[in-house]
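S.,

Sequence below, as promised.
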Amino acid sequence: MADMFAPLVAQLKANPKTIVFTEGNDPRILEAASKLLAEGVLKVVMVGNEAECKAAAAAGNFDISAAEIIDPENYAGFDEMVSTMVELRKGKQSAEELRQRTLAMNFSRSTT
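The prediction came back faster than expected:
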């Protein structure tokens, strides 16, 4: 089965794309990010509080050291990032809805 994905993996390694995870301190996301980074198939951007993402990764023994972590509370390009995400989603969600959802997800995860 692994051979079935070999051409795709080779293509991604030759021209890595970027994936953005909006729940940067979720253990499932951290596990996926760690695996993707270890394989070198995608550039990983995580949205969340940097200290919380790193602490959650350490607690789960996930290596996310090569990931870019963007804290929406302090990221100067947050509005531009939201606009790009809305464009990529082809209007399924307005910029304001996405902005509020992203901030709310990170707030709720940081308070639980």
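The chain has five helices and three strands.

Coffee later?
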